[in-house]
Amino acid sequence: MIAMALSCNPEILIADEPTSALDVTIQAQILDLMKDLTNRLGTAVILITHSLGVVAGTCDTICVMYAGRFVERGPTDLIFENPMHPYTQGLIKSVPRLDKKGHGRLTSIRGQPPNVIDLPDCCPFYPRCDKAMDICKRKYPAWKTFDNGRTVGCWLYSEEK
Ligand code: SF4
Question: What is the mean pLDDT of residues 25-31?
Fold first, then answer.
């Protein structure tokens, strides 16, 4: 299927969970193949995945989505070094790390995602957020863009709060 998609010389390839349910060896082969082909053809790839390991090893830029909307955007290395949105922080803390000492419990994000056909007008993450403030329950977060190319949709970074 990847070969069929690339045979049209697309400018953009949208790969939605291309490595789901594959074992890690085949996953690495598929990602290498896509990287090689897209480098040679100059195709940009939008990779949709739940695997932070795949994102870390493949992507230049990350857009983190929650409840169908972007919550944080920026260069991959900066987002993994210093996640700013509480949802991104929770995602990264929930991944097992071989380079961390100790055998503590993995962090999880409490609660459940909202119903996306009935989203609130406020921050949809606030029932699950440890940093929620009063404004989070009243208004959808304003976007803040930083000089290093990062954009975050969270009241923690807004002067308006
Ligand atoms: S806007 Fe408020 S509730 Fe939403 S992620 Fe930021 S701090 Fe948490």
Answer: 89
User: Which residues fall within 8 angstroms of residue 38, CB to CB, at 6 or more apart?
Assistant: 6, 13, 44, 45
Please work out whether the CB of residue 13 comes within 6 Å of at least one atom of ligand 1. no
Burial group, residue 52, by CB count within 10 angstroms (0-12, 13-18, 19+)? middle
* Residues 62-77 as b or e (16 or more Cβ within 10 Å = b): bebebeeeebbbbeee
The pairing of beta strand 12-16 with beta strand 44-48: parallel
Grouping H, G, I as helix, E, B as strand and the rest as coil, residue 99 is coil
Q: Other C-beta atoms within 10 Å of 30: how many?
A: 16
CB of 67 shorter than 6 A to ligand 1: no
Q: How confident is the model at residue 129 (pLDDT cuts 50, 70, 90)?
A: very high
Whether 131 is in the pocket of ligand 1, judged by its Cβ within 6 Å, is yes
